[in-house]
């Protein structure tokens, strides 16, 4: 359950008082999601999502919400915060930075099919193109430098075999880091798992959510993150036709360069490594806190995916 900060009717009314969005009808906490507190809020004028940021200060929120604002201005279906009548979109609610967005249409797809992969590929390329004129880009705090700096700490939790795997992969990435740096860069979503996307109708993309990892990065990395989550089983086996559909959707808007095609196996490995490390870190933090947080994401899933991508190369 991901409602870390319970809100009362008067909390929500205090926020709505600054808007012309009608009177509060109902509200309920959203169980999906991991990091932040989210509520569906219904007023006489429409449906909204209220997000309270649990781990970030207001100035950090300002930095990573800028992409959603930019894309929203260009008409893309992302959760862009709505300004109140004083032109304020970032609020303080229960001592947390808070934003109010339109509730976007659609629902999550549990098991994405090639048609979904094609649709997200196309939407991702449109997002990359639309973000190209937004500068400067936020630095990736889970990028190559982080992989190197966090690994010694996480390594102490691993078996000897897993330590060897981690060290070998870090060395491989170090040797090819220059090639990665030379790839086309821009704003990337950075966490485009299928639980961050809504579909309406059969395979019609409704919205891209959770842009809170958005940062500067190799554009190909976003595709690799999607491939490792949407296009394979939890063991890392490719679903038939899924990667092909993802790449075809993407290239219908932005064709990949020859360098990007060459680097695909390298970047798939890097994308698997990144989520192996971040999930190991989450488990470690939860253990240290003897945590009340429950929504574990299994690090071994991405260890297996890394092993599969290495074996394929
Ligand atoms: N603007 C929105 N429209 C519709 N549903 C939303 C919206 N924002 C969030 N949600 C719902 O809330 C869930 C959690 O949001 P998310 O941003 O992924 O949270 P977290 O950062 O805590 O992981 C989403 O999976 C989605 O179901
Ligand atoms: N979608 C990711 C979690 C988001 O990454 P984080 O670095 O913000 O923890 C996953 O499934 O592991």
From TrEMBL:
Q: Which pathway does the UniProt entry assign to this protein?
A: Amino-acid biosynthesis; L-threonine biosynthesis; L-threonine from L-aspartate: step 4/5
GO terms for MF: homoserine kinase activity
Residue span(s) of domain Aminoglycoside phosphotransferase = 27-256
A Pfam family recorded for this sequence: APH
Listed InterPro entries? Aminoglycoside_PTrfase, Homoserine_kinase_II, Kinase-like_dom_sf, Pseudomonas-type_ThrB
Alphabetized CDD domains for the sequence: HomoserineK_II
User: Which domain of life does the UniProt lineage start with?
Assistant: Bacteria
- What EC designation does it have? 2.7.1.39
> What's the catalysed reaction?
L-homoserine + ATP = O-phospho-L-homoserine + ADP + H(+)
UniProt KW keywords: Amino-acid biosynthesis, ATP-binding, Kinase, Nucleotide-binding, Threonine biosynthesis, Transferase
Coiled coil ranges: none
Q: What class of enzyme is it?
A: transferase
The record's SUPFAM superfamilies line, in alphabetical order, gives: Protein kinase-like (PK-like) (SSF56112)
Instruction: List, alphabetically, the PANTHER family matched.
Output: AMINOGLYCOSIDE PHOSPHOTRANSFERASE DOMAIN-CONTAINING PROTEIN, AMINOGLYCOSIDE PHOSPHOTRANSFERASE DOMAIN-CONTAINING PROTEIN-RELATED
Family the entry assigns: Belongs to the pseudomonas-type ThrB family.
Q: What is this protein called?
A: Homoserine kinase
